[in-house]
Amino acid sequence: MSINLSKGQQISLSKSDGTALTSVRMGLGWQAAPRKGFLAKLTGGRDIDLDASAVLFAAGQAADVVFFQHLVSDDGSVRHTGDNLTGGAGTGGDDEAVLVDLARVPAHIDQIVFTVNSFTGQTFAEVQNAFCRLVDETTGAELARYTLTGGGDHTAQIMAKVHRSGGGWQMKAIGAPATGRTFQDLLPAITPHL
């Protein structure tokens, strides 16, 4: 059973039987919003290149990142499935995904922050049906879904984070708008959420 998360809501990353999750997938899906007006009919739709990234933090400092140009973390515990330049899944499957083997994440990594940015610079007013979701990679069950709010003149969002809590992991939906075309641009906006 999936939980629809609201901004700031946290969930524990444990299975219903009380055991801890070992592998999760943070999926991202989106569609380009239909253009309006006479010129839109002539030029057709416009592709939107959103990029999912995962920034790994150790004691508040960025220690590694996984994104379309660095598909696997240095330790191998986090893996990006590849760059999608156009979107299209929207309400269906994932256009981009980041796989996290929680059992293999090094002990010094205490938070993993997931971001999305418009590499081509379009704002979220030009995006529809955007979401991120957390899936138990072992069973394929969707655990949580966070709908990325449409509209606005921002080009990025700090989506969510997974962080260590006690002996396990928790997920927190952040949903904070930001400005930037790459994960590097977003680092100052991530800091308040650590």
From TrEMBL:
InterPro entries, per database record: Stress/Tellurium_Resist, TerD
Pfam short name (any one): TerD
Domain TerD: 1-180
Domain of life from the UniProt record: Bacteria
Signal peptide: none
Membrane-spanning parts: none
Name of the molecule in the record: Tellurium resistance protein terZ
Organism in which the protein naturally occurs: Streptomyces cahuitamycinicus
